[in-house]
Design brief:
By secondary structure, the chain is mainly α. It has helices at 2-38, 54-60, 63-95, 101-109, 116-127, 133-139, 156-181, 185-194, 198-206, 211-226, 230-235, 247-257, 261-290. It has 13 helices and no strands. The model has no long low-confidence stretch (mean pLDDT 84). This is Sugar ABC transporter permease.
Length: 291
């Protein structure tokens, strides 16, 4: 009986050990293998002869890579700020117990149920200069109406921002709404007694007390910025030219289309480092709270 109980208590330990073993081999092992490949001249097939950081030098002297990084910064800043602002406004409206709140939430959560590929294709049709919004307005008699952002190299990146905000605003709304519903009623009573305007109460009292909630939203949105590939492929394919090129698309293209395994691996490692740098302030603040 004692031996049977010992075996039963041993099973969870084995399960956890196997899980961590699999994670270590396939996740961290993949990262290490990718880093090793970035230090080689690997092209179509892996080459295990080390050449140092030559691939990283080539990467940061590659004009296409530099453009993709700049596009990621522009897209990321506008996307995160826009999504947080719209999501917070929608959460405030929902928090005020508006009529048909369930319908309201469903409408703005619906985009989350749609994949980024479908989102990109839908917005591509809407913004198409011939068959989309521009064509519709001109067929209605407004011949001078122009909305060619999708084919304009200077504005194409903003079409990605519009589509991404539409897709992710519902997620931010739900997270912030959950935080607002957790605000103590005594705090609201004090705000009403002091006669503080509603907009000022949210900006100066409620939202500052919800920093962990907002930080969680920022982390989720940053991860979407870093791995921005599906939407780019569906909407613009990186064009016109390389006007909407992103680091994730750069890496995938060099992995599969240009079969330059070494340079693509270097791009992947840099993307990982960018992710860690962007998440460092969040983890630092969380660590300080626990000390």
């Amino acid at each position: 009986m004692r031996a049977w109980l010992h075996r039963q208590s041993f099973k969870p330990d084995v399960t956890v050990a196997v899980f961590f073993g699999v994670v270590t081999i396939f996740f961290y092992g993949s990262i290490l293998w990718t880093f090793y490949m970035s230090m080689t001249r690997s092209t179509l097939m892996p080459s295990y002869e080390l050449i140092g950081f030559d691939q990283y030098v080539k990467l940061f002297t590659n004009y296409r890579w530099l453009v993709s990084c700049m596009n990621m910064v522009i897209f990321g800043v506008l996307f995160i700020i826009g999504t947080l602002c719209f999501g917070a406004l929608l959460a405030i409206f929902a928090d005020r117990r508006i009529q048909a709140e369930s319908l309201f939430r469903t409408i703005f959560l619906y985009p989350l149920a749609v994949s980024l590929i479908v989102t990109g294709l839908s917005w591509r049709w809407v913004l198409d200069p011939v068959n989309g919004l521009q064509g519709l307005m001109r067929s209605a008699g407004w011949e001078s109406f122009t909305f060619d952002w999708l084919t304009n190299p200077d504005r194409a990146i903003y079409t990605l921002v519009i589509a991404s905000i539409w897709h992710s605003t519902g997620l931010v709304m739900v997270i912030i709404l959950a935080g607002l519903r957790g605000v103590d009623n005594d705090l609201w009573r004090a705000i009403r007694m002091e006669g503080v305007p509603l907009w000022r109460a949210y900006l100066q009292v409620i939202f500052p007390g919800m920093r962990p909630v907002i930080a969680s939203c920022v982390v989720l949105l940053m991860s979407e910025v870093i791995r921005g590939y599906d939407l780019v492929i569906a909407m613009t394919k990186g064009g016109p030219g390389i006007a909407t090129e992103m680091p994730a698309k750069f890496a995938v293209d060099f992995y599969f289309a240009r079969v330059n395994l070494g340079l693509a691996s270097a791009a992947s490692i840099v993307m990982l480092l960018i992710s860690l740098v962007m998440l460092t302030p969040y983890f630092y603040s969380e660590f300080r709270k626990r000390i």
